[in-house]
Amino acid sequence: MKTYDRKITMEVDPDRIFDFVSDPRNLPQFLPEVKRAEKLEGDRIRLQGDSHGHSYDAEGFFRDDRRRIEWGAEGDHSYSGWMQIREGDASSLVSEIEMELKFAQPPADAQKILDEMGQTLQAIRDHFLRPVHS
């Protein structure tokens, strides 16, 4: 399996980040290719969206535990991933988010995968750090 890894640090309470990323309804807010996410029975999830120029409607697993979420899908395009939120070294209000993806069949454009992972982490940061308008 081919593995890709990215990290980001931000000054936001780790529990606030985990509460946000572990709610499947929020996935479209930080995963640009996901248009709709629906929690099914148990640890199953249904995702709909567009990826690399193709629409998809797929089912997979989505698990969360102790500031870590895991997801994946089986079949011809098997993949899995996880995201871990940890307290930073400097303060309990600083968070480090690490994300890893694994693909059974390596994607044709590895740099694009890394770029998309970076965009995902940046979207999470932007969610918490965007200006509040009054």
Q: How would you describe what is shown here?
A:
The chain has 134 residues and is an alpha+beta fold. It has a single domain, classed as Alpha-D-Glucose-1,6-Bisphosphate, Chain A, domain 4, CATH 3.30.530.20. 24% of the residues lie in helices and 44% in strands. The chain has three helices and seven strands. It has a seven-stranded antiparallel beta sheet with strand order 1-7-6-5-4-3-2. It is globular, with a radius of gyration of 15 Å.
How many strands? 7
How would you describe the shape?
globular
- What is the name of the CATH architecture? 2-Layer Sandwich
Low confidence ranges: none
Q: Count of helices?
A: 3
Spatial order of strands in the largest sheet: 1-7-6-5-4-3-2
Number of domains: 1
The helix/strand class is alpha+beta
Look at the structure and give the mean pLDDT.
89
What gap, in angstroms, lies between the N and C termini?
48 Å
Order of helices and strands: EHHEEEEEEH
